[in-house]
Automatic annotation (TrEMBL):
Organism annotation: Myxococcus stipitatus (strain DSM 14675 / JCM 12634 / Mx s8)
Transmembrane feature ranges: 149-168, 175-194, 232-252
The entry's keywords: Membrane, Transmembrane, Transmembrane helix
Top-rank taxon: Bacteria
Name this protein carries in UniProt: Lipoprotein
PROSITE patterns for this protein: PROKAR_LIPOPROTEIN
Amino acid sequence: MTLTRVAILWLSLLGVGCATTRAVRLDTGEGVLVVHASPKKVTPIEVNSAEFERVLVQLLLEMHLSVRTSAETSARFQRVSWGTTPRLEGADDDAWCSLQGEPAVCRALLDEGFSFLDASARRRMAISFAWDGVWAGVQDAVRDVVNPLTLKVMLSSAMAAYMFLVVAPEPLTKVVAIALTTYVIAYIGVDAFLNLVEGWRRLSADSERAVSFQELQEAGHRFGEVMGANGARVLILALTMALGGGAANMASKGPMLPGFARAALATETNAGFLMSAALSGGVRSISVSNGLLTVGLVPGAVAASAWDGARGSSVATSALGDGPGLKNVYNGVRSAPGYPPEFKALQNGTTRHRVANKDLLEKLRELEPGEWTKVYRDGWAGPDKVSLHYFESASGKVFNFKVKSGWSNP
C-alpha cells in the first residue's frame, strides 16, 4: 500500500469521529478500504406531489400499460400477486376490500391466493398499507393509465423483493438493486436509508406476529412514517423505473426524475461514490451490516474520496486501475450516465485544460491516439448552477464524467 493510500485511509478514519452522519466504507477493489463521511449535513432532495405525479404517469406510459378489467388484471399480474396458497376465509379481508377504491378488483386479487399462513404474503400486504400517505394522489394521477390497485400490488411486491435482498446477509450484487439503493441514498441520504432498513426489519417482525388485517395495516403505517412522504415518492418512482426495464431503464430514465442533477451530486457527497458508476456497473456490491453501509467498487471505478480534485492532475493514481483499460468511457458527453437532460450551457462558460497526469494521458491515448483535454463546462440544470467535468478526445470520446455543484470557471 502506498503512503498516499495510507494517508487517505488514515485521514478518513480520523474524520469519522466528528462526522454528522454515519460513515460509508468504500472498498476500492484494490486492497484499500476508505471510510467516507459526508463533509456536511445534506438536505434531502424534495419531490413535490405535482412533479411526482407528472413523472410517474410518464414512466407508466412508457411501460405501455393500460386500464384493464378485473379479470384481465388478474391474469396479467398473477406473478406479482399475494401468493399461491389458499387464503384464510373470513369477513376481515372482505371488509378491508370494501374500503378500497375498487373493491371488486381488490377481491379478485385476494382470490389469487392471499393467506395469513404465508409470512411473505403478510409482509407484502403490510407494505401495501405503507403507501397510504401518498396514494390518494397516485390514484387520481394514474387511473387513466393503469389500474391503481394493480399498480399498488406491483410496487408492494417489488418493494418486498428489494428489501429482502437489502437485509439478507449477502451483499447486494444485482445491478438493479444497486441502482435502486443509489437513487434512495441520493434523494434521502445515508442515515435515512439505514433507518429505512431498520424500519423494514420491524415491519417484517410485526407482520410475522399479525393475525388480522388491522395489525398489518398498523405495521404498514408505521413503516410509512419511517419512509415519509418524500421517501415514498422516491421509492415509487425508482421501483417503477425498475419494473419498466431493470437497471438499463433506470439509467436511461433517471434524468426524468425531479431534481436528478442535484441527486447525482448528492450521491458523491452522501456516500462517496459516483451515481454514474452505480448505473454503469462501476459498483459491484452494497451491503448493510450493524448500521454500516459498505460499497464495493470495480477496480478503476474510483470513489469520490479517492479522486484528486486539483486541476492538472484531476484523477488519483488508483483511477488508472491495474486492468488493461479505463472504465466509464462513453462515445459522447450526452451518452454519459447522469448527464442532466435539461442542461443549458453558460455562454463562454467552457474551458479546456491539458492533461498533466502523464500516466493518465498514456492510458487515454490507448483508447484514442492524439489530443485529450480536461473540460469544465458551466451551465444550468433547471434552477441549479452546475459544472460538467470530463476528459474529452478530439473525436468526442468522454472519460470520467461528473456533475459538480456550482460553477468551476472564474
